[in-house]
Amino acid sequence: MRTEEPRPVRLEDYRPPDWVIGTVDLDVALHPTATTVRAKLAVRPNGSGAPAPLVLDGDDLTLRSVRLDGKPLPTESFVATPDRLTITQAPQRPFELEIETVLDPSNNTKLMGLYRAGATYCTQCEAEGFRRITYFLDRPDVMAVYTTRIEAEKSEAPILLSNGNLAAAGDIAGTSRHFAVWHDPFPKPSYLFALVGGNLASVGDSFTTMSGRKVRLAIYVEPGKEDRCHYAMDSLKRAMRWDEVAFGREYDLDIFMIVAVSAFNMGAMENKGLNVFNDKFILASPATATDGDYSSIEAVIAHEYFHNWTGDRITCRDWFQLCLKEGLTVFRDQEFTADQRSRAVERISDVRGLRAHQFVEDAGPLAHPVRPTLYHEINNFYTATVYEKGAEVVRMIKTLLGEAAFRAGMDLYFKRHDGQAATVEQFVQCFADVSGRDMRQFMRWYSQAGTPEIKVESRYDPAARSLRLEITQSVPPTPGQPTKQPMLIPLAFGLVGGNGEDLPLAVDGRPLSRGVLELTEPQQSFVFTSVTERPVLSLNRGFSAPIKLTVPIGADDLLRFLAAHDSDAFNRWQAIQSLAMTLLLGNVVALRSGEEPRLDDGLMNALETVLKDRALEPAFVALTLSPPSEADIAREIGRDVDPDAAFAARRRLRAAIGRRHSAVLAATYERMITAGPYRPDAQSAGRRALKNVCLDLLAMTESDAAIGRAFAQYQNADNMTDRVAALDTLMAHDRPERAAAFEDFYQRYADDPLVIDKWFALQAAIPEPATLDRVRALTRHAAFSAANPNRIRALIGSFAQANQTQFNRSDGAGYNFVADFVLELDPKNPQVAARLMSAFRSWRTLEARRRAQAEASLRRVAANTTLSRDVHDIVARTLADK
Ligand code: 0A1
Ligand code: ZN
Description:
Elements: E1 9-10, E2 19-29, E3 35-45, E4 54-57, E5 62-68, E6 71-72, E7 78-81, E8 84-87, E9 95-103, E10 113-117, E11 120-124, E12 143-153, E13 159-162, E14 165-171, E15 177-189, E16 195-198, E17 201-208, E18 214-221, H1 230-247, E19 255-261, E20 268-269, E21 274-278, H2 291-306, E22 315-316, H3 322-340, H4 343-362, E23 374-375, H5 384-401, H6 403-417, E24 421-422, H7 424-435, H8 444-447, E25 453-461, E26 466-474, E27 489-496, E28 506-507, E29 510-511, E30 516-519, E31 523-528, E32 536-539, E33 548-550, H9 555-563, H10 569-592, H11 601-612, H12 618-624, H13 630-637, H14 643-660, H15 662-671, H16 682-699, H17 704-716, H18 720-731, H19 736-749, H20 753-764, H21 771-778, H22 789-802, H23 804-807, H24 813-825, H25 830-837, H26 848-862, H27 869-879
Parallel strand pairs: 2-12, 18-19, 19-21, 22-24, 25-33
Antiparallel strand pairs: 1-23, 2-3, 3-9, 4-8, 5-6, 5-9, 7-8, 10-11, 11-16, 12-15, 13-16, 14-15, 17-18, 20-21, 25-26, 26-31, 27-30, 27-32, 28-29
Helix pairs in contact: 1-2, 2-3, 3-4, 3-5, 4-5, 5-6, 6-7, 9-10, 9-11, 10-14, 12-16, 13-14, 14-16, 15-16, 16-17, 16-18, 17-18, 19-20, 20-22, 24-25, 24-26, 25-27, 26-27
């Protein structure tokens, strides 16, 4: 709780630690309410500075004893509070410090440090959780070798795990207890420490690395769930192989373990050799998991595994460098998915996610640079900007340098910084060194927040056969950064000729080797010569830079892209999205002034062309048939947003598509039905995605036949993907079938919390005024628990983030409900509470009435004097006027 005024931490204040810790020997005796931790630390002064007191971090700790070199430390030689242990007269030489603390894991509701997920003991130490276990120099540049002895009642915790390799295990003679000793030879920061104890079942396998070492693999889950681990295990082995091939990275310990737990604040955690996962990113069976779940499992398994090199072997010097491990690791997991599935589909999905989350963040009060320079609470910086924009920045380095130099830069990074706690500068320097490029301007991607806005004007001169592009760039002001410098922007492009082929590129008669323009100035012009016909511009191909691009391009040209089959799949998708967006924006205005929305034959015909093109991947067609989301529309409008109008415009458009193309949609639906048992591969999933988009568009017509088809699919589905897709379709239609399906779903899956989360989430997303009461009632449902983050995210998170019209009710009741929930949750789990609170981040863009209602709720939360640092930080920044 906030007992003192918040203290910001600043990048510029970074200093190396006065002390370092070479080894950590932990002895943990597990007990539900009184776990004891004895930590033996080999402490030594770091270099020869002036004598400094030893100040160790703590958080909510109870100290039992302190010994220095084996002798009890006299009470006058140290000061211990729950948050700090200060040894005033620490000897200025190496010494051993032995600290005993006692913890109550059963009452640890923050799920940071040692806590219990159900009956399982587990830990979460990133970012600052280790200090909730013992007093420590809890900062990532203090790297130590850990040996961990765990003991517990055999009946309560037959499985005892920690980082590294197993060194010893056995019974404790004459007792009902046993022990295990784990040793991790790789020095690591405290945030990568992990310990697990419980009654867990496991699935085992092995992997032979590229140098021929056999590594044991194990996934631990609640007994009875073993048969749901196979896809996770398969994904792990594919990720291990991919990292060898794509980056030359080999696994380094004798064993790699994953533990799935039911209560976890985030997705998963890359603890060295012992990843801990939110069970929703492990457990899958055709009957309980959707295609989306399968692909998330594959991606999160890969992400955590890839951290072994980008995060664990090379870690971060300080938390400002978070993107060094996260942006890079997201880039790596995106590339893995692109190679495993479809590159085009993965890119489109990633960009959709980026725009939905990061662009919104960048445009609002919580905007921050990829590498922030100040924080009050580091937990609030596990953001789309650090992760997803951080990945885009790495991708741009690759685009600028090309494949070979990028790989050489990565190789150098691994070689030069292995075993170190590194900085973003050191990472980028590797690419400068291998390529000889000056990367200084590029560094602005790390330091300047905000999404760059690029405007392009083009003029074709048929007589001179030249094409002139005038390009301007600007970066909008963001909190704390009123003015910006120009960025180095790699803009991939092509000039598409009338026959759909790319025209050859030349400047002053000299051919260009590749289609990438490098923007560096606020205004620049580029002249292409020998352009034999007026081309259509295909700009920012593959979304080569995370920018907002305005090109005055007519609907005809957008359609010619399609007719001409732009060789860049991303831009083919983008062209249709742009057409749909233009139409939707016009219709929002029309609807708000009581006029009828317009239709667009061009768009309708383009969709039909795509639907009928058998050469296209079904997953790509499915993405193309999904118009921009309500949040996309709101972001594009930018101010005075009326969420009801955005919703209505989108719904009308989808209904129009359903009506206009009902025959081809129905035929496609039938054609995409796949015989045989469910398979989770990308191709099968793509067919189901297209089938279910067709189902949904057809249901938008409200015809009894279409609703009946959805209900039949709900009832007859032989896999969770099709069942949930049907329920999702029915969710948006107030028909008796909807109530019947929700009732049935609960009865079928009452015993399966992860499936019941889907039931909560879909109900919370119903776009009708009655939803708020339904959500309120569901908070009292027997299956709901505010102690479980997945349940909270399913019900409250879905309401606040996936239900634009009802969260943003004009009477303010949606805001009040979420604010009340946050206030109640905050004392128990501030991290999850803070994340829910960030749903308010776009409040200033709303129309006046909603804006006032949202502000009132925000101020009510802000007025609370016992807010956690987490929620206080989010609310204060959300309300600040820049
Ligand atoms: N490093 C993890 C994310 C993570 C961060 C904080 C946590 O604390 C509850 C948990 C996980 C990742 O990138 O997967
Ligand atoms: Zn990560």
